């Protein structure tokens, strides 16, 4: 069966993470089921050189964020899991509290109830105790919190090197090798 990943893009800063994720899935011939919130549309416009039409054209399947009846809103629709990139604190809060008022949070809730992998690339800093408690709750429910925190052992030269490493780490959660970054090879003694 062909791999299928649900991708939710929210309005948090870091729209490029979602875009690069969808591009990587395309390159790997993995079916993407994408929901882009209205706030994410604004962030894409503000932070990137992509048009919303360009982003939408990358998606295998695109859903309206208000379509609670979409296929991905049901556990009977088989997917390998979901990544929310970027994940706003509002979305984190909704997932933590099972507040399924849009398709992104409903699909995330379905991932948790079906015991499928759910990865949240939470984009906020600094974090207060309320944020941390929400992260604890979703982790206890089975989600993975994967903030896009860059590593530097691979000596990134471009912003895209940093983005690619975080996207690669998210795909690692699904055992998907996208060859997006240089993996840690250990320290070499001089």
TrEMBL record:
Catalytic activity: dimethylallyl phosphate + FMNH2 = prenylated FMNH2 + phosphate
Chain positions recorded as FMN binding sites: 11-13, 37, 88-91, 123
One function term, GO molecular function aspect: flavin prenyltransferase activity
Residues annotated as binding dimethylallyl phosphate: 153, 169
Domain of life: Bacteria
UniProt keywords, alphabetically: Flavoprotein, FMN, Lyase, Prenyltransferase, Transferase
EC number: 2.5.1.129
Presence of the UniProt keyword Repeat in the record: no
Residue ranges of domain Flavoprotein in the record: 3-173
Keyword Flavoprotein: yes
TM spans (from-to): none
Pfam short name (any one): Flavoprotein
SUPFAM superfamilies in UniProt: Homo-oligomeric flavin-containing Cys decarboxylases, HFCD
InterPro entries: Flavin_trans-like, Flavoprotein, UbiX-like
Stored HAMAP family: ubiX_pad (MF_01984)
Family: Belongs to the UbiX/PAD1 family.
Role summary: Flavin prenyltransferase that catalyzes the synthesis of the prenylated FMN cofactor (prenyl-FMN) for 4-hydroxy-3-polyprenylbenzoic acid decarboxylase UbiD. The prenyltransferase is metal-independent and links a dimethylallyl moiety from dimethylallyl monophosphate (DMAP) to the flavin N5 and C6 atoms of FMN.
Protein name from the UniProt record: Flavin prenyltransferase UbiX
Native organism: Jeotgalibacillus soli
Lineage: Bacteria, Bacillati, Bacillota, Bacilli, Bacillales
């Amino acid at each position: 069966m062909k791999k299928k990943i649900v991708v939710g893009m929210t309005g948090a800063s870091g729209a490029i993470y979602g875009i690069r994720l969808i591009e990587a899935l395309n390159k790997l011939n993995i079916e993407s089921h994408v929901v882009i919130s209205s706030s994410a549309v604004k962030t894409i416009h503000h932070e990137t050189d992509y048009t919303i039409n360009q982003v939408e054209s990358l998606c295998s399947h695109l859903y309206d964020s208000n379509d609670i009846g979409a296929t991905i809103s049901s556990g009977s629709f088989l997917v390998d899991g979901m990544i929310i990139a970027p994940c706003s604190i509002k979305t984190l809060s909704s997932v933590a509290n099972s507040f399924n008022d849009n398709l992104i949070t409903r699909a995330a809730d379905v991932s948790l109830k079906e015991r499928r992998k759910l990865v949240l690339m939470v984009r906020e800093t600094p974090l207060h105790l309320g944020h941390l408690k929400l992260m604890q709750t979703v982790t206890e429910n089975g989600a993975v919190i994967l903030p896009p925190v860059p590593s530097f052992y691979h000596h990134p030269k471009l912003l895209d090197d940093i983005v690619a490493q975080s996207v690669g780490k998210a795909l690692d959660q699904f055992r998907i090798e996208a060859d997006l970054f240089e993996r840690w090879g250990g320290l070499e003694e001089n």
